[in-house]
Hints:
Elements: H1 9-27, H2 47-89, E1 95-110, E2 116-130, E3 136-140, E4 143-149, E5 155-161, E6 164-166, E7 174-185, H3 186-196, E8 202-216, E9 220-221, E10 225-236, E11 245-246, E12 253-259, E13 261-262, E14 265-266
Antiparallel strand pairs: 1-2, 1-11, 2-7, 3-6, 3-8, 4-5, 4-8, 8-9, 8-10, 10-12, 13-14
Amino acid sequence: MTDRVYPSSKVATNGAANGATATTTAANPTATKPQPLRQPYRPQPQYRHRRNRRSNRSLCCCCCFWSILIFLIVALLAAIAGTALYVLYRPHRPEFTVTALKIGKLNLTDNPDGASSHLVTRFNLTIAPKNPNNHLSFAYDSFALTLSAANNDVVLGNGSIPAFFSDTKNFTSFRSIITTASDLDLESVKSLRSDLKRKGGVPMKLQMDTKVKVTVGGKLKSKKVGIRVTCQQIRGLAPKGKSPSVASVADSHCKVDLRIKIWRWTF
């Protein structure tokens, strides 16, 4: 006798469920369509910014390197040119000598107010500039002269020398009158009277300021450069009577310095 196997109700149920699902899917095909998943936001690494910074730094370093290199090359070429000019032409500074100084007046009188004194002076100055160079010539502007007491810088007089040209191996001589008529304060009067009582005379200092243009070999010309000539070791007594006194200039020495002006400052 053969046993019969009957299908279980669960199977039928599952089949029905599957049929219902199929029916539902057929009726609404979008009901069970899977939705795409959203990816979480992740910031991208800033590689480009870093690369830009590195490239900017490398470019800046390269520019600095080439700038320094060009500056060093220019400085080296200038040094070589200066050395060559020195070897070829052997330049020397101009020389100045005070050959004579006569004191016609050196009077100091008290003013009625008693707070100051009046100074009246007159000096006859003879100065000799010399150009010791064989290939360099100098074209001077007019000189501004200032004669003062060496110990206290009290101005004793002012004068000038006209512009002139000093050729190679040239020696000239100029005369100038230095005068003043000014009032001095009590402190300056006290210092000047102390100098007038010296047996050796009043120590004086002559200062001359001008500008000069240098010509090398008759062709190469420089721009005008300021110079200051300072002459010291000059002594003179106040004259007695109408006869002028002669100052001692045998030991005088004149020094020539460049006057370079940068913006507001002069060195």
